[in-house]
Amino acid sequence: MNATLDLLRTRRSVAPHLLGEPGPTPEELEALLTIGTRVPDHGRLTPWRFLVIEGGARARIGEVIATAFLADQPQADATRVEQERKRLARAPTVVAVVSRARPHVKIPEWEQALSAGAVAMTLVIAANAMSFSTSWLTEWYAFDRRILDALGLEPDERIAGFVHIGRALEPPVERARPALADVVTRL
Ligand SMILES: Cc1cc2nc3c(=O)[nH]c(=O)nc-3n(C[C@H](O)[C@H](O)[C@H](O)COP(=O)(O)O)c2cc1C
Fold first, then answer.
1. 138 CA to middle of ligand 1, Å?
2. 61 within ligand 1 shell (Cβ under 6 A)
3. Which of 27, 153, 161, 173 has its CA 20 to 30 A from that of 52?
4. Closest Cα to atom 28, ligand 1: which residue?
């Protein structure tokens, strides 16, 4: 069977705390990001961009996440806050895919947002093809203005996902998938 089909048939996400070192080398990451840009993009607007969160940046943004969390939940205990502080430090590398969908005379914003989703999924597939495992997450901080400001997002930019990349510490187990009969209509 074709290796691409095998990968697509069997790929599973791996929870971020089960994504260990090593993450992608600079060369591998360059290749992954390049492949990630190779997606359908109606009107060639490039309505997305990447944020690479590695090394110390994971703790730096983690501090912002913990501070925002604590401001909202001052009663939270230290363990819980520490969990928030480590949000982006679970996997060796996190790539945020940022949607830059904007009003356009011809191309609907919906289509631009879908292109950003295609970027994230392409990144996931490419990373898995390179023997990494991944988790595409948003979690609460993808929607929190304080965190988005710290990440440098413009007011009309959104996080399509934080793609966590690392090596699976445990093989994932299969999960149920929808029955085709429930999702396919033949016309
Ligand atoms: C845009 C987007 C955001 C997601 N955010 C989360 C999240 O915040 N937390 C979570 O547990 N799963 C989230 N997921 C789901 C996981 O990425 C993943 O699909 C799920 O765990 C099933 O894994 P699978 O890839 O093995 O089917 C998100 C998926 C998408 C497409």
1. 8
2. no
3. 173
4. 137
Do the Cβ atoms of 144 and 67 come closer than 8 Å? no
Q: What is the pTM of this model?
A: 0.97
Distance 54 CA to ligand 1 centre (A): 21
Instruction: Report pLDDT for 1.
Output: 66
Name the residue with the closest Cα to ligand 1, atom 16. Answer: 136
- Nearest-CA residue for ligand 1 atom 18 is 13
* CB atoms near residue 89 (< 10 Å): 17
**Residue 17 in contact with ligand 1 by CB distance below 6 A:** no
SS3 134: strand
Helix/strand number for the chain, H first, E second: 7, 5
**What percent of the chain has a predicted confidence (pLDDT) above 90?**
99
Closest CA relative to residue 94, chosen from 55, 64, 126: 55
Max CA pair span of the chain: 56
Rounded to the nearest integer, the mean pLDDT of the chain is 97
Structure-block tokens of residue 3: 């290796």
Ligand 1 centroid to Cα of residue 135, in Å, is 7
Cis check for the bond before 22: say yes or no (omega within 30 of 0). yes
Structure tokens of 31?
């290749």
Please give the distance, rounded to the nearest whole angstrom, from the Cα atom of residue 142 to the centre of ligand 1.
13
Q: What are the pLDDT digits (tens) for 93-109?
A: 999 999 999 999 999 99
